[in-house]
Design brief:
Elements: E1 3-11, H1 17-25, E2 43-49, E3 52-58, H2 68-83, E4 86-92, H3 99-111, E5 117-122, H4 129-142, E6 147-150, H5 159-169, H6 187-202, E7 211-220, E8 226-234, H7 237-244, H8 249-266, E9 270-278, H9 286-291
Parallel strand pairs: 1-3, 1-4, 4-5, 5-6, 8-9
Antiparallel strand pairs: 2-3, 7-8
Helix pairs in contact: 6-8
């Protein structure tokens, strides 16, 4: 009998939600970097476990918002949790019961009453076993989790057990997506996110959070390859030089890395062309939020 359900992954920024999503799906569908707050939209990855189809929602990290984009991202995270059949709270083992995790638990107590919440303690390779046992006890004193799993999303430890447990819990329901579909993001957005990841990894300080990438055109060529044109939008003219780098070296390296990953993902040749434009007000542009799957109004103070 077919089963299907939505599983929301929530937690603080950099807790490993995107890494876990990619492990569950078996392919890279979400940005993974060492920088916090890189996931902006609610990204759905699709995995099959036996007769169950698991639709994972990788939500933006829950943090104290400062800007409109921050507020819209946090609202998207809680909206994803509210819409899910099951919620997985992911925490970092070495950070333990932080103030941020406490705030998330309080919000869970206030808003989530009728759905199972599972605790996944991630990055277990960074702490000793006795610390893990103590942390597990502390966490379950704070909230009545249905189950607790100890995992390493990066290395895949414990991920299979978690996926099987989730598969057993999702409701009886026809599958929501075709069997071979691993994400519900359009290819144009996946391509843009891959380039944004390379920008985030290469650049530093605040600039990665003040730029966005859009796929401007996608042409399927007769030889089976794809010609993709993208625009990198920055908020100030001075940022163009940072993205370009000396003699264009930075943008060339970013484009090459994004193209190689796209070719691996698509399994075919890709011709990627990136240009940089200034759009000063994109952080206040409702259309940009819509394209990221965020609600512009949620960013209001």
């Amino acid at each position: 009998m077919k089963k299907a359900g939505f599983i929301a992954l929530i937690g603080e920024p950099n807790a490993g939600k995107s890494t876990l999503l990619n492990q569950m799906v078996g392919a890279k569908v979400s940005i993974v970097t060492h920088k916090v707050q890189t996931t902006r939209a609610r990204i759905r990855g699709v995995a099959i476990e036996g007769e169950s189809q698991l639709v994972f929602v990788d939500t933006p990290g829950v943090f104290k918002p400062r800007r409109r984009l921050d507020r819209a991202m946090v609202a998207a995270a809680w909206s994803g949790a509210a819409d899910a059949d099951i919620i997985v709270l992911l925490i970092e083992a070495h950070r333990g019961l932080s103030e941020g995790v406490k705030a998330i638990i309080e919000q869970l107590k206030a808003t989530i009453r009728d759905r199972p919440v599972i605790l996944a303690i991630n990055k277990i390779d960074r702490v000793k076993s006795e610390f893990l046992l103590n942390l597990t006890q502390k966490m379950n004193e704070q909230f009545s989790f249905e189950h607790t799993f100890m995992i390493s999303a990066e290395h895949g430890h414990g991920v299979t057990d978690l996926r099987k447990s989730l598969a057993a819990k999702v409701p009886i329901h026809p599958w929501l997506y075709p069997e071979d579909q691993i994400a519900d993001l359009p290819l144009r957005m996946i391509a843009a996110e891959m380039t944004r990841e390379k920008l985030t990894l290469r650049l530093h300080q605040e600039l990665p959070y003040q730029l966005t990438v859009e796929t401007d055109s996608w042409e399927e060529r007769k030889d089976g390859s794809a010609r993709i044109e993208q625009v990198i939008y920055v908020v100030r003219d001075g940022h163009k030089g940072i993205v370009l780098g000396n003699k264009g070296e930075t943008i060339k390296a970013i484009s090459k890395a994004a193209r190689q990953e796209l070719e691996t993902f698509l399994g075919r040749k890709v011709h990627l062309f990136c240009q940089i434009k200034v759009r000063e007000k994109w952080l206040e542009d409702a259309q940009r939020y819509s394209e990221m799957g965020l609600n512009f109004k949620d960013g209001n103070t």
